[in-house]
Amino acid sequence: MRLSRLASATAAVLLALALPYEAMAHARVHPGEADAGELFGAACRVRVDNSRVTAFCHNPYPDIDRVSLHVECVHWWDLDSDGSPVDAGPAQTVRLTGRCWSEVGAAWVSHRRTD
To answer: Please, are residues 109 and 82 in contact by the beta-carbon 8 Å criterion?
Structure first.
């Protein structure tokens, strides 16, 4: 019984390590936009799978963060896109999606305070 639990735990760790890497959260607010003690900005994970982009943004703070997904495509004939802004309320997770027809060059999420 103990051996099977150990094998299950080892398999779970190996599976977690084999999952694709997702970009870590970055750039919540620029310096000067907020007071040093004021916390703001959803943490976003951006994942690119072939020509599709998915971002999950979780806002742990009391202020609403208006997030938007931006996608740059590799080829000149493939249109870049700026997604519609979505409000991530306190303790809320939102999903943003975008795509290119061929290859994704870059993808990021912008953040804006709501009035």
So the answer is: no
CA angle 19, 49, 86 (to 5 degrees): 105
- Does pTM top 0.70 for this prediction? no
Could you read off the pLDDT of 80-89 as tens digits, one per residue? 999 999 999 9
The CA-based angle 91-84-62, given to 5 degrees, is 20
The region that residue 111 occupies, defined by phi over 0 for left and psi between -120 and 50 for alpha, beta otherwise, is beta
How many secondary structure helices (H) and strands (E) does the chain include? Answer: 1, 7
User: Which H/E stretch holds residue 14?
Assistant: helix 2-18
Cα separation of 60 and 12, whole Å?
28
- Structure tokens belonging to residue 80: 């870049």
Predicted confidence (pLDDT) per residue in 84-115, tens digit: 999 999 999 999 999 999 999 999 999 999 87
